[in-house]
Amino acid sequence: MTLKLTLNGTTHDVVAEPGTPLLWVIRDELKLTGTKFGCGVASCGACTVHVDGEPVRSCQTYVEDVEGAEITTIEAMSENKIGAAVQQAWVELDVVQCGYCQSGQIMSAVGLLSENPKPTAEEIDDYMSGNACRCATYQRIRKGIQRASEILEA
């Protein structure tokens, strides 16, 4: 079937079978590889994108369910005020270790700060608990989110 997807502000005609995960359309059809495959069962968060401003796991979101929605990937996150602040904080604090999970971490952090601009450490840990980091940079991720909150407040 042919679908119209709006991804990072651009409308694309894509051909996909019903039940195709959005992740595979983003990576294989549209060639945007910042969104990562991690577990395939929505448990690790590496595949997180925004659909109408809400973080979702693209490995378990079917492409036909997001036709007509605004999909945002990590490639466009610097154009978003909160996304730019999170990315700035990540660089300032050297949050990344291996980096594989970081696009999903950033997408979830933006979702958190969109809902709660001044989260506590506990609120950050609760919100981000669905994002796995094999390198265990959780403390640096928490500090990065706190720093992004400060940048946005300034």
Structural description of this entry:
There is one protein chain. This protein has five helices and five strands. With 154 residues, the protein is α+β, with helices and mostly antiparallel strands. The protein folds into two domains: 2-76, Beta-grasp domain (Ubiquitin-like (UB roll), Roll); 80-153, DNA polymerase, domain 1, CATH 1.10.150. Strands 2-1-5-3-4 form a five-stranded mixed beta sheet, sandwiched between helices. Strand 1 (2-7) and strand 2 (10-15) form a beta hairpin. It starts with a strand and ends with a helix. Residues 1-77 form the 2Fe-2S ferredoxin-type domain. GO terms for molecular function: 2 iron, 2 sulfur cluster binding; metal ion binding; oxidoreductase activity. This is 2Fe-2S iron-sulfur cluster binding domain-containing protein.
Write the layout of secondary structure elements.
Elements: E1 2-7, E2 10-15, H1 22-29, E3 48-51, E4 54-57, E5 70-72, H2 81-92, H3 102-115, H4 121-128, H5 138-153
Parallel strand pairs: 1-5
Antiparallel strand pairs: 1-2, 3-4, 3-5
Helix pairs in contact: 2-3, 2-5
Keywords: 2Fe-2S, Iron, Iron-sulfur, Metal-binding, Oxidoreductase
GO molecular function: 2 iron, 2 sulfur cluster binding; metal ion binding; oxidoreductase activity
InterPro entries: 2Fe-2S-bd (IPR002888), 2Fe-2S-bd_dom_sf (IPR036884), 2Fe-2S_ferredoxin-like_sf (IPR036010), 2Fe-2S_ferredoxin-type (IPR001041), 2Fe2S_fd_BS (IPR006058), Beta-grasp_dom_sf (IPR012675), Diverse_Oxidoreductases (IPR051452)
